Predict the structure.
Amino acid sequence: MFDKSDPRATLEKPKDSQAGFSEFAGAEYEKFYEQPPNETNPLSKTWWMRGQNFFIAYSEAEEGGVFTRKDQVDEYVLLLPDKESKAVVTWNGSETEVAGFSLAIIPLGESEIKLIKGGKVIRLFSSANADLENLPVNQSSYAEPHPNVALFKPWPEAASGYKVRVYSLDVPKEEGRFGRIFRCSTFMVNFLEPFEGPRDPSKMSPHSHDDFEQSSLAIEGEFVHHLRWPWLPDMNKWRSDDHEHCASPSVAVIPPGAIHTSQSVGAGSNQLVDIFCPPRVDFSLKDGWVLNEEEYPMPKHK
């Protein structure tokens, strides 16, 4: 279902498990530019939303802004997408500088992020951190677990143990590799190559996932998320197609079973970040796709 020029066309074909589905969840869309932030203080404003297994905090922060975690139960991700921003992460009594246009993995326990130069601050937490569950604007959507989503199970920790790990996003594009993918024990993040201008409608990539959600975070430009759900035996559970226009910043959470593809429609640069919790096996099996794969072992898989 991928265009032949798409690196994902080389992925192993997933098993067709949709025949066993008895219902589907709808997609979740949060357009932060249309709603007030969940949290505000003089130096930052933050919007929260969630998927089944994760929480996303999107912040706009000024110099001096601070974000703390007291009882974090597992690794979480910090993303600084603006090249001119900068932060210092304090964990276990040591400080680590995080330059703009970087991704950092921060261990469990107590930590602090302090902005030295302001910009966008994106944090990703697993749903194991129950103290965060009342913050997302869409918390009521997950009052009951969504169907078809596998339970969150963390992947193995890094072979060399816990520490703050920082990775530059300034990675040259490589033929055959899909985006810029990093993983840890809780998340896989793909900082995609930006779409410059509208996407060619003859080269879309409709596909579906059997048992996990995909969160697509738009941080620049505009997209239309196209979704189609297979028909079930019970017509009462059929869903109409989605063609949801989302400018930035926004998040779309795409449920298992939904055939989907995202189309950039902005005139300038259009930037998506795809987020998976826990990491994806199929991407991890592709040689060279996960840029920090040597640090984080894979779990045993069938």
